[in-house]
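Task: sequence design from structure.
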């Protein structure tokens, strides 16, 4: 019994020492961010980073998020601190975070750092960036081994989803719309990589960037065999000038994703396996293509 008590005490001391040790993480700006200790009060200003914290079993450490961090359900009750362009800096600082997670493009990053708050800026745009972000967050949480384990779990789920793609749809061209302007998910984006992994051919080449704004004529000329977008935007496509000529619309070879499902598809984080499953579920519902 004495040996067990001693062993438990040693483990507790080791854990306390690990939590108190400085942690240094390199973010997507190339900045080395040194934390005096493993953070216990975290603000996340990015939905994908919020989801990553929770997927790494550290949801309880979040004390505030951006307005778009709504998954898992526990995040809905946390203080909402704005978004990329309108972060509520005073409210955020009042939460006394020992780490702020933010996208590189968040305007408030420099102001937060000027207040002495450590900011880890991560903005994945492809799967490599997503792997890097997961690893960086895991390291900041003091659980570096959890990052690769989470990545491997996501990759297994994507591979399992890919195995369910109907053979008749493999190799079909696809247009995935991000916003109605139109902005698209190109080959170089994490969405584009997901589509490629499912055996589809993106009409938007990597050379145009991850999420380029397109001339609508580009889509009309490409005549993709499949169209994917939010359900609301898909419903509006036939009314766009010339878009009624798209054969995919006429043949109902479309995937319109409900709001919550579309949010999952647009977040470069630990739910990409779930995103792959959503795409495959739609593909399996489609009618046979001629």
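Answer:
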């Amino acid at each position: 019994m004495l040996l067990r008590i001693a062993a438990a005490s040693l483990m507790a001391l080791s854990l306390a020492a690990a939590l108190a040790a400085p942690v240094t993480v390199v973010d997507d700006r190339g900045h080395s961010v040194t934390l005096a200790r493993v953070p216990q009060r975290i603000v996340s200003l990015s939905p994908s980073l919020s989801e990553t914290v929770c997927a790494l079993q550290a949801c309880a450490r979040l004390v505030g998020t951006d307005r778009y961090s709504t998954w898992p359900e526990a995040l809905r009750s946390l203080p909402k601190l704005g978004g990329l362009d309108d972060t509520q800096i005073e409210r955020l600082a009042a939460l006394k975070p020992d780490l702020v997670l933010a996208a590189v493009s968040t305007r408030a990053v420099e102001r937060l750092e000027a207040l002495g708050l450590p900011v880890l800026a991560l903005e994945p745009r492809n799967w490599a960036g997503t792997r890097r972000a997961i690893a960086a967050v895991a390291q900041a949480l003091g659980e570096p081994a959890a990052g690769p384990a989470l990545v491997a779990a996501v990759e297994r789920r994507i591979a399992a989803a890919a195995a369910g793609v109907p053979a008749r749809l493999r190799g079909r061209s696809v247009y995935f719309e991000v916003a109605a302007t139109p902005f698209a998910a190109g080959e170089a984006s994490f969405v584009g990589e997901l589509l490629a992994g499912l055996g589809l051919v993106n009409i938007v080449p990597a050379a145009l960037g991850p999420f380029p704004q397109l001339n609508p004529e580009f889509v009309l000329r490409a005549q993709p065999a499949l169209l994917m977008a939010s359900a609301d935007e898909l419903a509006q496509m036939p009314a766009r000038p010339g878009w009624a000529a798209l054969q995919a619309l006429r043949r109902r070879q479309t995937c319109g994703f409900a709001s919550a499902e579309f949010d999952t598809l647009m977040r470069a984080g630990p739910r990409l396996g779930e995103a792959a499953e959503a795409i495959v579920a739609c593909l399996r519902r489609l009618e046979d293509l001629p």
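The chain has two domains: 21-144, 157-285.
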